[in-house]
Amino acid sequence: MRRRLVAALAAAVLASLTAGPAMAAEPVWERIDCTSGTIEVATVDEAKEGDFLTLAGQLDCVAEKAGAAFGYAVYEPGFSLGIVYGSHLRPYAPAGVSPFSDRKKVPTGQVDFAICVVTDYLVRVECVRVVWDLLDHELDVRSLDTSDPLVDRMVRLVSPDWGPRPVCGTCW
């Protein structure tokens, strides 16, 4: 009896020492092997509400498995990771190519950042950089090589529970 009591007490102490705080599960991103596509339109236009960035193009891939998705990664100078919002992942088309087209407001004050169409944590298909043009005093969008140091890094998938909701008008 005494041995059972000691064993039960030891098990309880061990369980309390190893138990940690509950952690949120990592978000799931269903990915496929997709490395080909283009950004065909990359423009910045001004409106009364501010500057808007439009990206449109296609990925040369289709849904090989249910739930597979791609997204946009945002990279800023000085940050170690790019960010992909899970709430903004887009599904691949079931056949043919997978088109994309988005127009979103550029956050006020954000004058140097890059956006890549990404299909995995390290797969950047096409990228652009948005910068303030000192001569023209306006935002300019330029093609950016996928191996440029600004974007040549891993992305972090931000769970819909942790990041902007779908109502975020400036989130990519």
Brief description of this entry?
The chain is mainly beta.
Question: How would you characterize this protein structure?
Answer:
The protein has 172 residues and is mostly beta strands. The chain is built from one helix and ten strands; from the N terminus they run αββββββββββ. The longest helix has 17 residues. The chain starts with a helix and ends in a 14-residue tail after the last strand. The N terminus is likely disordered.
How is the topology of this model organized?
Blueprint: H1 2-18, E1 37-47, E2 50-59, E3 69-75, E4 82-85, E5 90-91, E6 98-105, E7 112-118, E8 124-133, E9 138-144, E10 155-158
Parallel strand pairs: 4-10
Antiparallel strand pairs: 1-2, 2-6, 3-5, 3-7, 7-8, 8-9
List keywords for this structure.
172 residues, disordered N terminus, mainly beta, 3-stranded antiparallel beta sheet, 10% helix, single chain
| Backbone CA Rg | 22 Å
Distance between the termini: 63 Å
| Beta strand count | 10
Shape: globular
Low-confidence spans: 1-23, 163-167
Report on the biggest sheet. Answer: 5 strands, antiparallel
N-to-C series of helices and strands: HEEEEEEEEEE
Beta percentage is 35-45%
